[in-house]
Structure to design on (495 residues):
């Protein structure tokens, strides 16, 4: 990752004393002696020390270690622990509780509001937990929670297995799965969280301790239900994930490009009336940009000819340029990745689900806003639902949006990586205003929101993310995290 000069900002944050947490025996930004802090008088477990790869503000690795994927958000944690095993996570959570230090959990760093990081607190980063164990006979894979999606997809695909993931390889597998997780295989295999059958999770115990427990259909089944769609930073720190994996020998991958947006109405109508009802093996995404429309499709266990036939109603609109590919899912997935360095630095999205097809007026809104998009990278993104998404797995899930026709999000991307903090970019106010107005204009046509793409400041976000499941989530929160150790701007509060 690139690093712009964060030291100056760090110093000014410290001087201003923003939300400073002073730990006994140390200072807000100097944790070199953190392990030697005074013993907690009432703690039922021994004083904890931070273990693993521990990065302090004075370390050369700190600037990179504190940077998130979305550079719109900058945070300056007191200390970052890169856990090397579950015990490091137990120690970190215990330490944070014993010293009353705010904490956040982090995996792939793609939180779209910067909520996996915190000023003057402890970041427990599990991205270095990379183990993989695949039981071919049982069709079960247990992986360290630190895998990113590219690592998970390619590792499983080498053995001709797959689970649903999102499309961007650098996104954390944990972060995606615990909030639901959709992608090209969603209509075939369901949400990523639907295949999650077990998790190891470190939870708070007593008044100042922590321990690892298992969430599965037979142990703490209520917690497994909650982790399937509401697990991000709400109940504990997930250290390993066990999935039911599906055999997958190969896929067909189609990309179609329409120049300009003149065909938008035709393409969008054809897509929304066919894609959510197509053969379950077919997953599609539509991306409307300022100067082009892109359709991406993956057909599991199919040929390009079969895929093009299924997509014919869409591909017959205008004269798109079409490319087709067939191969191992891991190779195809790796092939369409965009390197992070060339992606815009700053991003702002607004998530929404749709249960009834968009009328002409809604597509007009898309056309109107895309014509004034702040950059060429800004886009209106959709993912077809239907197929296996409608089926709940055994034990159910906190993810509620089973009856959506499609997911969509207006997204603004701007700025060059590593040059300046996003808040200083002159385009930031324009991009933020554009996304706010665009999403507001679509409100009459959409319903609900996706917790993995949080809508900051949204009224009624609890219901928008989880519908009537929110009440049960609060009860489960009370059981596993009664003191609300895991909290952030839109976390589940105890009942
Ligand atoms: C470019 C881009 C593309 C995306 N595409 C898709 C897509 O195709 N499909 C889709 O479903 N989503 C997509 N998303 C949304 C994505 O699923 C979320 O941003 C996801 O939460 C990121 O996870 P992470 O581990 O990378 O991020 P992080 O910032 O590390 O974490 C995100 C959240 O999860 C929590 N968390 C992370 N790891 C753990 C853990 N082990 N235990 C408990 N809590 C944890 C964090 O505390 C934080 O609240 C996309 C996001 C981006 C930025």
């Amino acid at each position: 990752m690139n690093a712009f000069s964060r030291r100056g900002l760090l110093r000014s944050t410290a001087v201003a004393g923003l939300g400073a947490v002073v730990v006994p025996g140390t200072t807000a930004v100097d944790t070199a002696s953190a392990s030697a802090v005074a013993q907690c008088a009432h703690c039922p477990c021994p004083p904890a020390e931070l273990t693993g790869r521990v990065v302090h503000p004075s370390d050369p690795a700190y600037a990179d270690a504190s940077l998130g994927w979305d550079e719109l958000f900058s945070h300056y944690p007191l200390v970052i622990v890169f856990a090397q095993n579950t015990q490091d996570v137990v120690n970190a959570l215990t330490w944070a509780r014993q010293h009353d230090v705010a904490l956040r959990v982090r995996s792939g760093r793609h939180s779209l509001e910067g909520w996996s990081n915190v000023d003057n607190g402890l970041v427990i980063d599990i991205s270095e937990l990379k183990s993989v164990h695949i039981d071919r006979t049982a069709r079960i894979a247990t992986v360290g929670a630190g895998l990113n999606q590219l690592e998970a997809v390619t590792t499983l695909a080498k053995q001709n297995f797959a689970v649903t993931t999102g499309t961007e390889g650098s996104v954390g597998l944990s972060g995606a799965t615990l909030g639901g997780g959709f992608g090209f295989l969603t209509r075939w295999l369901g949400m990523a969280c639907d295949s999650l059958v077990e998790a190891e999770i470190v939870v708070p115990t007593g008044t100042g301790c922590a321990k690892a427990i298992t969430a599965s259909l037979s142990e703490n089944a209520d917690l497994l239900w909650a982790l399937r769609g509401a697990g991000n930073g709400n109940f504990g720190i997930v250290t390993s994930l066990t999935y039911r994996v599906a055999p997958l020998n190969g896929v067909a991958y189609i990309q179609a490009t329409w120049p300009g947006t003149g065909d938008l109405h035709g393409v969008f109508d054809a897509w929304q009336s066919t894609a959510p009802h197509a053969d379950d093996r077919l997953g599609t995404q539509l991306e409307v940009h300022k100067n082009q429309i892109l359709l991406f499709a993956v057909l599991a266990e199919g040929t390009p000819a079969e895929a093009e036939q299924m997509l014919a109603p869409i591909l017959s609109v205008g004269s798109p340029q079409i490319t087709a590919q067939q191969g191992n899912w891991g190779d195809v997935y790796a092939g369409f990745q965009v390197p992070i360095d060339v992606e815009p630095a700053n991003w702002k999205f607004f998530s929404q689900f749709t249960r009834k097809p968009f009328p002409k007026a809604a597509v007009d809104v898309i056309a109107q806003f895309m014509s004034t998009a702040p950059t060429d990278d800004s886009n209106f993104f959709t993912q077809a639902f239907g197929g296996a998404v409608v089926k709940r797995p055994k034990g159910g899930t906190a993810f509620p949006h089973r009856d959506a026709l499609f997911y969509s999000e207006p997204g603004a991307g701007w700025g060059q990586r590593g040059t300046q903090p996003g808040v200083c970019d002159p385009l930031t106010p324009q991009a933020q205003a554009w996304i706010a107005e665009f999403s507001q204009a679509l409100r009459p046509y959409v319903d609900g929101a996706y917790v993995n793409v949080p809508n900051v400041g949204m009224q009624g976000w609890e219901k928008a993310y989880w519908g009537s499941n929110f009440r049960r989530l609060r009860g489960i929160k009370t059981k596993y995290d009664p003191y609300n150790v895991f909290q952030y701007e839109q976390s589940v509060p105890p009942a």
